[in-house]
Every structure is written in C-alpha cells, then in structure tokens.
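During the first year of the project, the team set up a workflow for recording each protein of interest as an amino acid sequence followed immediately by a discrete structure-token representation. This format lets reviewers and collaborators read both layers of information side by side without switching files. As required by the reporting guidelines, we include two representative entries from the current panel. The first entry is reproduced here exactly as it appears in our internal archive.
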Amino acid sequence: MERIQWLCGSQQDKEKLPTNPYASVDPAPPSSEQDIESLKHTLTNGEASLFARYRAMFALRNQATAEAAMALAEG
C-alpha cells in the first residue's frame, strides 16, 4: 500500500533517488538516506513498516561497501 501511495504522490513530493547499479525491479525504491547507521537502524527496527525497511535495505545494497554489507547482514 505504501508503494502505491509513494508512486501516486506528486512529483514535488518525490525525493531524488540514488541510482540503482543493479538495474533490478525492486518492491520499494531505495531510501535517499545515505548514513549507514541510520539505514541499519531502520532495517532492523521491527516497528518500522515493511516499505521503510525495504527502502533501507535497497539503499544499503546500492552502496556496495563492506560497511553496508555488514549492516545488511545484521538485518
């Protein structure tokens, strides 16, 4: 539901999304947040929505660093 709401939002409300280096079709866009600790917190937060957690996961994946991979492993 959150993805549909995000897709239907006005263009002004959409953030500038980072590039997806894998050209995959994901169930959620990557988060525009780039701070690994913040993304890891969102990913591992059981109270966060699945959409928010997916966004954090894809943002970490797209960073393709060892630190981001370790954050993904904690998730």
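The second entry, processed by the same pipeline in the following quarter, appears below.
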Amino acid sequence: MKKSDLRTGMWVRFRTGEVVMVLLNSKDVCREGDILTNGKGYFSLEKYIDDLTHSEVIGLDIVEVLIAQRTWDIIAFSEDNFDCIWVREEKMNLTQEEAKEIIYKATGKKIEIKGGENALYRV
C-alpha cells in the first residue's frame, strides 16, 4: 500500500500500537495539510514516505490500514467494527551467526555460509 492509497475515514495503526484516523483535504491523493488524528492531536502526512514509513520517528511507521465495516463506524474506532486491508510485511535482519543458529535448530544440521557477510551470491 502507498500513501496515495489512503482515504478519509480509513484508520491506521502505528508501530507503537496507537490507532488514528486518516483525514484528507480532498478525495485525491495525499497533499499538504492532510493529517492523521486520534481526536487529541494530529500527525502530518507530509512526514510520511510513500511506503507509509515516517521520515523521522520509527514508532510512527504505519503498520496496518483498517476500514470500517459500516459507514457509521468510521467516527469511533472499535476493533470489532473494522477490517484490516493491509499489513506491513516486516523483514527479519539477521547476522550470519543468527541465521546459522535458526537453520541448525530447524534442521539439526550445521551449515556454512560462503562468500562473507556482504556477498551478493552464496555458493
């Protein structure tokens, strides 16, 4: 999902777990002045990169996008009344040693990774 896919009335979940509503100035793509709000404050969508990550604060990365099951549910968020339409696919960053340990636990076999930590290809 991209920032341009967001629409007014959608709700998004930050990496911190907080859920906020999307409010756009128009029906078109996100532009200056568009915000995310929880009713107590707001977060500017200008600070978000197209992949829905925040340009400054990791905890404000958007990790889920939710839509209301019924129009009148848009106003007040209740988990039961919303469907998740997108979830950020998280990547696992591992060192070679961590990867070896995981493979060993899963298969019972020790492995050797050739080519070094930054190799493009493994032989």
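For the second entry, the following points were noted during internal review. The beta strands are 11-14, 19-23, 35-37, 42-44, 62-68, 82-87. The longest strand covers residues 62-68. Both points are flagged for discussion at the upcoming steering committee meeting.
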